[in-house]
Design goal:
Helix content: 40-55%
Number of strands: 3
Strand order of the largest sheet: 1-3-2
Order of helices and strands: HHEHHEEHH
Strand content: under 5%
Length: about 220
């Protein structure tokens, strides 16, 4: 689902995944996320493209409700744009059409590359539990219902503490946050006779089943 919008059709999701997988459109969204607003001329200068190219991609992003025009700044042929709040949950791949699946898979590969680099950055910039970069690992036992309840609370925390750029207080920084939860294969049986290693602040006696501690 998308935040505050009707459920998307397969065709709409396919177009969304293709758009988000477009390198220039990703750079435009990243620029707007960092700087708040821009027009096609500014983006052309900053991204090394023609204003005609950036103008075209801005219109396409607006069609998909990823950005919106700033009416109080726009006038004549000069149109200013800002990013819109957006949340999307990818459906079960088994329900996708072949075209939607292909577009989603291509976008997923791009995300994995970015997230892998982000994970390395988090480790490199980690300065202890009081620093800006944080890394946490936990292992525990949950039912599927408990996991889904955890996810709802996770989203509630993001809504509680998150805010758009124009509402951020002094001292706030843009934060990139990721969450993954993956079950062990059902055939895996933990060795009840194994002696776990020390585990920092991990939930339970096994860390990530192998005694890996919390944090970097």
């Amino acid at each position: 689902m998308t935040d505050g919008l009707p459920e998307m059709t397969s065709l709409e999701r396919t177009a969304l995944y293709k758009s988000l997988g477009n390198p220039l459109r990703r750079r435009i969204l990243e620029y707007l996320g960092r700087h708040g607003e821009a027009n096609s001329t500014v983006l052309a200068r900053e991204l090394g493209e023609s204003s005609g190219t950036t103008s075209y991609h801005l219109r396409k992003l607006a069609e998909q409700r990823l950005i919106e025009e700033i009416p109080e700044k726009s006038g004549g042929r000069e149109r200013w744009w800002r990013a819109l709040p957006f949340r999307h949950t990818t459906p079960d791949p088994a329900t996708m059409t072949p075209e939607e699946y292909a577009a989603a898979a291509q976008l997923a590969h791009l995300k994995i590359e970015f997230d892998t680099a982000l994970y390395r950055r988090a480790h490199e910039q980690y300065r202890g539990p009081g620093g800006w970069a944080q890394v946490q690992r936990h292992g525990t036992w949950l039912t599927r219902e408990e996991l889904l309840a955890f996810m709802r609370e996770y989203h509630a925390l993001l809504d509680r503490y998150g805010r758009p750029r124009d509402e951020a207080p002094e001292g706030a920084r843009p934060m990139l946050m990721r969450f993954y939860a993956v079950p062990e294969p059902e055939s895996h049986e933990p060795d009840i006779h194994a002696v776990p290693e020390p585990v920092g602040e991990s939930n339970g006696p096994v860390g990530e089943w192998n005694g890996e501690p919390t944090g970097p």
